[in-house]
Each structure stands twice: as C-alpha cells, then as structure tokens.
C-alpha cells in the first residue's frame, strides 16, 4: 500500500517542480524585458557629455618647425542621445583632432610666427566625421595658438652607444659599421647649435656569438620643440668572431746598443702572446712582430716592448718583460 501511494505522489512532484521552473523563467524574462525597455527609454533621451580629445598639428610647411601649441588637448561638449554618447565613449573612443596649418600665413623673413585658430569651425567638421552633425554645444578653449619657427639644418656624425656582452671566446674584431655615418639635424638655430652628434638609442645585446645587422632609431619630427634627424633610422653592423690565444717566438732587437761593445742578450728571443680571430689565425707569423730591448738605468736590465704587431690581433703581451745581457770582448 505504501509503495502504491509513493508511486502516485511522484508524478505530482514532477509537475510541481516543472511549474515552479516555468514561473521562475517567466519572472526572469519579464524582469529582463522590463530592464531593456527602461534602458531603451532612458538611452533615447538626450544628454550633454564632455569629452577630452588630443590635438595634432598637420602639414607644417617644409621650411618651418612646430615649436609650440597653447593646448595639447581640448574639451568638447556634445548633446545627443544617450546610446550614441555611450558608443562614442566606451567603444569608438574619440580620435585626435588633426589641424591643418598648410594655409596659415607664411613669411621667409620672419623667424617666429604665431597663428591663432578658432576651434569651433574645426570641431564642427570633426564632429561630423564621427557621426555628430549638430550636437556640438561648447568647445574649451575656443582658440588655439600655434607657434612655428624658421627651419635650419646641419650635418652631424652618428655616435653609437652599445651595451654588449659576448659569449666565451667571442669578441668584436672590427669597429661597428654605421650607415649612414653622418645625418642631417633640423630645428631652430638654438636647437641645432646644441647638437654636436646624433646619438641613436642604446644597443643592448647579451652573449653574442655572431655578427648582426640591426636598425636603431633617432627622434623624428613628431615631438614639439625638439630637433629631429633625417634619416631617423641608421643601420648598424656589429662584426663578431670567435677568438683564440696564440703565441709566437720573436728575435729581440737592441735599441741604442752600447757603443764599441758586443752585447749578448739572455735569452735572445721572447714569446709574444696575443688573441687572434679564427678567420685571421692562418695569417699569424712571427715576422709580423717586432720586440725591442732598451737598457734601463734603474735595474741595469734590458726591458722588452712589442713595437710592431698586426692590426687584427689584440691583448699583445711579451714574456719575459726583462732580460739580462753579457758584454762580449
């Protein structure tokens, strides 16, 4: 009897659960629909909202340089439907206002020119380009002053700065090649007078094992009141080779021998050690080195010095540094 009663109650519970879920989802749908209609009504209303946008100056005359602008940003107030303002602020993001000054007054005889620009006509065209035709309500500031100066130039050498480390047995075997090695700097008279060299960004490389060709940048004409370089990029080649240590035996030559005396050095040969790149290793020969001996009054010994060595070796050392001598009759 109890089992029959439980079997009859099971369909009733399932029906009650299904009814409860239906009522919940119906309530949730009605709630979302109400919120959507409320948002639609609210966003259809007009609101006034202010935006800050950057200002970019375009088409500066080729014989002039931009040296000042009264404001780098402006604030515009728009009155439009709420949904359009939300899209502009959070999705489209206001783009910069580009101001063309190619038609501003020019004079080759004037070093500095200040141009006053009324912003409202420019902002109206700008707002039309982003879909707001008659929604502009205010602009702050209402006027912008742009300063340009006469452009001067001179040629300066490029000076490279590096922060490089090499893997074991690897070294830079020649000076870095810079192309071009000199470039033109542009600016006002005062700007270029202070520029003696062009210094590109620092080259930072670790554990180098091979030669590289890279490009480094100098500042271009995107900065206001700063000198700029043309070209703004230079090519740098850093030659790297694997090096090895090598030694050769060289006959010692006397400097200023004692007059009328036959001098015999002990030993009469010295060992010259150096570091040489693998590509130049086969060219190494003892005849390319000269070791001179000069008598020192302080200790009465001949001091040895390497006076000639190939230009492709480095870290040249001589052993021993001093030698004794014997005067023969």
Describe the structure concisely:
The protein is an alpha+beta fold and 329 residues long.
Topology:
Elements: H1 2-44, E1 46-58, E2 64-69, E3 73-81, H2 82-92, E4 97-100, E5 112-118, H3 119-129, E6 136-140, E7 143-150, E8 152-157, E9 162-166, E10 170-172, E11 177-179, E12 182-187, H4 189-193, E13 203-208, E14 212-217, E15 228-230, E16 233-238, E17 240-255, E18 262-266, E19 269-277, E20 290-296, E21 301-308, E22 313-319, E23 322-328
Overview of this protein structure:
Helix content is 21%, strand content 47%. It is α+β, with helices and mostly antiparallel strands. Strands 10, 17, 18, 19, 20, 21, 22 and 23 form an eight-stranded mixed β-sheet that branches. A four-stranded mixed β-sheet has the order 4-1-3-6. A three-stranded antiparallel β-sheet has the order 2-7-5. The chain starts with a helix and ends with a strand.
What labels would you give this structure?
329 residues, alpha+beta, 8-stranded mixed β-sheet
Rg over CA atoms: 41 Å
Span of the ends, CA to CA: 144 Å
Structural class assignment: alpha+beta
Strand fraction equals over 45%
Count of helix runs: 4
């Amino acid at each position: 009897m109890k089992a029959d009663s439980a079997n009859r109650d099971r369909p009733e519970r399932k029906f009650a659960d299904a009814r409860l879920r239906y009522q919940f989802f119906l309530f949730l749908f009605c709630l979302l629909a109400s919120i959507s209609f409320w948002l639609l009504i609210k966003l259809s209303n007009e609101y006034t909202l202010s935006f800050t946008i950057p200002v970019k100056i375009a088409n500066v005359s080729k014989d002039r340089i931009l040296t000042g602008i009264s404001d780098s940003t402006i604030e515009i107030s728009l009155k439009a439907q709420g949904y359009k303002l939300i899209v502009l602020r959070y999705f489209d993001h206001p783009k910069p206002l580009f101001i063309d000054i190619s038609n501003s007054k020019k004079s080759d005889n004037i070093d500095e020119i200040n141009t006053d620009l009324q912003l409202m006509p420019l902002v109206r065209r700008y707002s039309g380009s982003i879909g707001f035709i008659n929604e502009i309500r205010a602009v702050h500031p209402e006027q912008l002053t742009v300063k340009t100066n006469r452009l001067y130039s001179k040629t300066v050498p490029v000076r490279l700065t590096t922060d490089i480390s090499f893997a074991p047995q690897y070294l830079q075997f020649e000076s870095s090649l810079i192309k071009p090695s000199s470039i033109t700097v542009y600016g006002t008279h005062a700007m270029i007078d202070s520029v003696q060299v062009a210094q590109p960004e620092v080259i930072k490389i670790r554990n180098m094992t091979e030669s590289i060709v890279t490009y480094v940048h100098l500042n271009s004409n995107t900065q206001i009141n700063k000198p700029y370089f043309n070209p703004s990029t230079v090519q740098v080649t850093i030659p790297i080779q694997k090096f090895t240590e090598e030694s050769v035996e060289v006959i010692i030559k006397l400097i200023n021998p004692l007059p009328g005396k036959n001098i015999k050095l002990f030993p009469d040969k010295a060992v010259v050690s150096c570091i040489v790149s693998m590509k130049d290793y086969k060219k190494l020969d003892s005849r390319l080195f000269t070791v001179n001996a000069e008598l020192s009054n302080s200790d009465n010994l001949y001091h040895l010095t390497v006076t000639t060595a190939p230009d492709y070796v480095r870290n040249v050392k001589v052993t021993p540094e001093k030698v004794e001598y014997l005067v023969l009759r």
